[in-house]
Amino acid sequence: MANEQNEQAQDLSSEQAAQNNEQFQAEDIEQVADAGVEDLKAQISKLEESLKLEKARTANAVYEAQKSVERIQRESEKHKETVLEKFAKELLDSVDNLERAIQAAGDQETPLLEGVKLTLKSLLTTLEKFGVVEADTQNGFNADLHQAVGIDPNAKANQIGTVLQKGYTLNGRLLRPAMVMVGQ
């Protein structure tokens, strides 16, 4: 009987120990779960902040890339305009020389003169295709388009009397001013 009581006492204490152990394990699991949930929430919060930062960096990088592309395109267009302007200015010397050759030939219509006229016409047509046109000298003196180099006594006041050298514009911008003599 004493053995039975001892066994029962041992069974009771092992049952209590098992219950206590289960209780501690449940509390540990709850603590771990609570701690895990809090850690996970903190980690999620940290990751969300990191994601916001990375999204902002990405948006900024995209913006900078777009601005760089736009700047490069503007610079490219400006460079094209500059190159076309230089090229057109050089061709204007050839136009002037062909016009002088036609004036020097006088009134004699020769095949050579006809060839020079056709060459000049072809060159002017090509220049017009690229936006190079003769500056207007018919509508009076305009300081934006003309350069007065002398006074023409036969011309009316503020009117162009003699055109010494034709002026040209490129896409609406002055390429070379016309050298003119103006009346007083």
From TrEMBL:
- Matching HAMAP family: GrpE
- GO molecular function of the protein, one example? protein-folding chaperone binding
Q: Where are the transmembrane segments?
A: none
Report the function annotation for this chain.
Answer: Participates actively in the response to hyperosmotic and heat shock by preventing the aggregation of stress-denatured proteins, in association with DnaK and GrpE. It is the nucleotide exchange factor for DnaK and may function as a thermosensor. Unfolded proteins bind initially to DnaJ; upon interaction with the DnaJ-bound protein, DnaK hydrolyzes its bound ATP, resulting in the formation of a stable complex. GrpE releases ADP from DnaK; ATP binding to DnaK triggers the release of the substrate protein, thus completing the reaction cycle.
* Region annotation Disordered: where it falls in the sequence: 1-29
Gene3D superfamilies recorded: 3.90.20.20, Head domain of nucleotide exchange factor GrpE
The biased composition feature labelled Low complexity covers 15-24
Q: Record's superkingdom?
A: Bacteria
Q: Which family does the similarity line name? A: Belongs to the GrpE family.
Protein's cellular compartments: Cytoplasm
UniProt lists compositionally biased (Polar residues) regions at 1-14
One GO CC annotation, please?
Answer: cytosol
> What keywords does the record list, in alphabetical order?
Chaperone, Cytoplasm, Stress response
CDD domains attached to this UniProt entry: GrpE
- The organism's taxonomic lineage, starting at the top: Bacteria, Pseudomonadati, Pseudomonadota, Gammaproteobacteria, Moraxellales
Q: Which residues form a coiled coil?
A: none
Q: Which species?
A: Acinetobacter guerrae
InterPro entries in the record: GrpE, GrpE_CC, GrpE_head
SUPFAM superfamilies per the UniProt record, alphabetical: Coiled-coil domain of nucleotide exchange factor GrpE (SSF58014), Head domain of nucleotide exchange factor GrpE (SSF51064)
Assembly and interaction partners:
Homodimer.
Name this protein carries in UniProt = Protein GrpE
